Amino acid sequence: MNSHQNGELDSPSARPTRTALPPLGALRCFEAAARLGSFTRAAQELHLTHGAISRAVRSIEDALGVALFERRSQRVHLTAAGERLRDAAAAAFDLLGATVRELRAPQRKPALVLSCEPSLLMRWLIPRLPALQAAHPHIALQLVAGGGPVGFDAVDLAIRRNDFAWGREVHATHLFDERIGPVCSPAWRDAQVGGAGRGARLAPDACLLHSATRPGAWRDWARAARRRLPPQAAGQRFEHFYFSLQAAAAGVGAAIGPWQLVRDEIESGVLAAPFGFVADGSGYYLLSPQPARAGTPAALLAAWLRAQA
């Protein structure tokens, strides 16, 4: 049977202790003298006397039992032990300095991650970011493109059109109703659209631009606007909705444009909307896992987004 002659494992004598270190002020004096190669220059940097630097270094040498400097011809040179302590002290002070700077720096609030459908992100939200930054400079926002169901483990908020079921567990804040209408270049309008107002009509050979992401856009507009499409109208299909709008601006044909996505181009004269815009029954919503508390960045962002519509 073993006896614990050296004390219990939990006794104070068995616990690891930190080796006693020289005073921090003395180490600071030594580090400056070692880095500058001069007691005089170290004293000037630390606003001390030459004697104070010398006494600090001597106290460390006495505590360690080794010489840190050799004094030759009125100059000091590090010994091998001094070089080792210099490197360790420099690394320690660098780490302390970096930590102090981090603690003093203002803590940045985590960014809100907002997912938005790509076309709406590019044509509506991004051009309005300067206004958001001016109105709410404290809101940090990270934008990601996405559509369909939302995984709130990766994002905080999402802007989506209500063309899919997002579930009862998702909180939805209405932003604006979708309004759609044919858009084209002013030159194409003059060549392919006759009449004005309710009497406006597309030429029989007008080129209608379609997209794979909204294949029924023209049909939806015709039903909502109570208009008939040209029976023999030519057509061209694009992979993305955004491409059809770009083609319309280039004069290729007419595309169905949601108001929020084309309003800037219409106001600047790049696009024309000869038939105006009508609501198609859908809308855009800001989705979140739970309602935002009043005054929080999420609530302020939601109010700002609604105001932009």
Oligomer: single chain
**Secondary-structure class:** alpha/beta
Treating each run of at least 4 consecutive H or I residues as one helix, how many helices?
A: 11
Euclidean distance between termini CA atoms: 84 Å
What is CATH's topology name of the largest domain? D-Maltodextrin-Binding Protein, domain 2
Radius of gyration computed on alpha carbons: 36 Å
Determine the strand fraction and express it as a percent band: 15-25%
CATH class of the largest domain: Alpha Beta
CATH architecture of the largest domain: 3-Layer(aba) Sandwich
Overall spatial form: elongated
How helix-rich are the residues, as a percent range? Answer: 25-40%
Mean pLDDT comes to: 88
Describe the structure.
It is a single chain. With 309 residues, the chain is an alpha/beta fold. It has 2 domains: 93 residues, Orthogonal Bundle (Arc Repressor Mutant, subunit A), CATH 1.10.10; 192 residues, 3-Layer(aba) Sandwich (D-Maltodextrin-Binding Protein, domain 2). 40% of the residues lie in helices and 21% in strands. An 8-stranded mixed β-sheet has the order 4-3-5-12-6-11-9-10. The protein is elongated, with a radius of gyration of 36 Å. The N and C termini lie far apart (84 Å).
